[in-house]
Amino acid sequence: MTLKTMTRSLALAALLGATALTLPAMAQDPSTITGGFDVGPGGFQGNFNPLAATSGLTWLSVYYEPLVIYNAELTQLEGALASEWSMSEDQREITFTLVEETWHDGEAFTSADVKFTLELAKNAAAGSVFAARLGSITSVEAPDDRTVVVKLSNPDTGLLSTLAQVMILPEHALKDIAPEELATSTWWATTPIGTGPYKFTQYVTDQYVELAADEDYRNGRPLTDRLINRYFDNSAAAVAALRAGEIDFTYVEPDDAATLADNADYRVIEGASFVVNYVGFNHMFGLWDDVRVRKAFMHAIDRQAIIESLYGGAAEAANCGYVADQLVPADIDQYEYDPEKARALLAEAGWSEINGDKPITWLTYYNTPLAANVMAATQAMLSQVGINVVPRVVDTPTYNGIVYKEGTPDWNEFPLVYAGLQNGPNPAGINVGLNESQLPPNGANIMRVQIRMLSAAFDAALGETDPVAAEARWQDVCRVMNAELPWATMWVANRYGVASNDLVDFVWTPAPAGGPFASHPEKWSKSE
């Protein structure tokens, strides 16, 4: 179903206005591009620390840069701060050749900065979300200013994809801050410096962040003087600001995209999210020990009805962590909607004794009207088979604080979640959320999944160096996910952005976690 044929409407956008604030420039100013770059599930308003970024990388990558980065189509990696790289024959050593660049304060960027960043990112005490993901790195060497050698304990086919999200940081500015103090340092939101095309100017608390063009950027001085990232309470408020001419771009819900599709003033950008949405079972609690209970969830939820009625058909049901044809075996369980089977499975598992109709908190960070409707529909379907879930919506920082907390989780906070995790472009992306080696605080296995068979399947796929054999390995991961259901996988949906037609050479991709991806903001401009 296309945007033009969507019939469901969203009145909230007309009822909510944009957040009131005084900006240094309005969107009509041709020297300034203003957007809601952190609106929606790929954003992370208020986060300035790329080591702690579980999303929001669309904006952070405007003033920080990684070694390598995905192209805008998310099909292959290209160089960013590394001009080239090579892998040793045994795939246990990666050599990067660095570009010549300066930090925003004029200091030279060197291999010492890369070594410092990767060692910091491996340190969980620094609040890094990459600590476990970089676990295969045994050492980082800097033989000269333009060369970095990363040595691995074993082949890790997901490492370059991870490095695409690790923003390189300035050693000279951060070396005197103890790692355990970095997460709460004011540096990130007051005086940060990067190597990207724009440099930090100011943050007005809870209102906006302003960047200025870096006159000395290696790829040329940006065409636009300033970028402003405005904060909004929700996507409806951002759409109201877009319609009022206050911003040039924002993420939008499918309904709003449909209403703007025929408007000559805007360009609707549609693309696959590469994010699998799931109902996550907190495996620290015995409630979900019986796989029959987990399978009951799958049969109780009419995913296709939700996809058609709420997503307008712009989503694809997922029966494991993937939907790409080459990663999904044809013979896995499709988990068709069957409430009678769900009731039978719950009865066999003794659900009435395990929990019965006692309410179960269902935590999420998704605060959009679409997500609210999806959760309400799912709640009603689950109640029909005897599962009583109660949605609880919090902002992303609160959510992260709850699910990443060390020790035994509080039953009242998150026995169940509605969340998303990238399922591409590299299939290794979901390893961080499911492998038992990725348990918090080092990794993002927030549901504390400890299924040995699944971890072994991931480890085998990550260590497979033959591309042809690797495809079969990732299919094995899908098979185990489908049979064991560490999550109740729901769907992979499309996402939408809307940009003013005044923007020239503007690139946005609905990437997992907001990217990063090669959007080349130095080329963005506005027509007069």
UniProtKB/TrEMBL annotation:
Pfam families: SBP_bac_5
Signal peptide: 1-27
Record-annotated Solute-binding protein family domain positions: 77-420
Record localization: Periplasm
Highest taxon above the source species: Bacteria
Record's keyword terms, sorted: Signal
Keyword Signal recorded: yes
Entries under InterPro entries matching the protein: Peptide/Ni-bd (IPR030678), SBP_5 (IPR039424), SBP_5_dom (IPR000914)
Keyword Membrane listed: no
Positions of transmembrane segments: none
Family: Belongs to the bacterial solute-binding protein 5 family.
Protein name (Swiss-Prot/TrEMBL): ABC transporter substrate-binding protein
Organism from which the protein derives: Devosia salina
Lineage, uppermost ranks: Bacteria, Pseudomonadati, Pseudomonadota, Alphaproteobacteria, Hyphomicrobiales
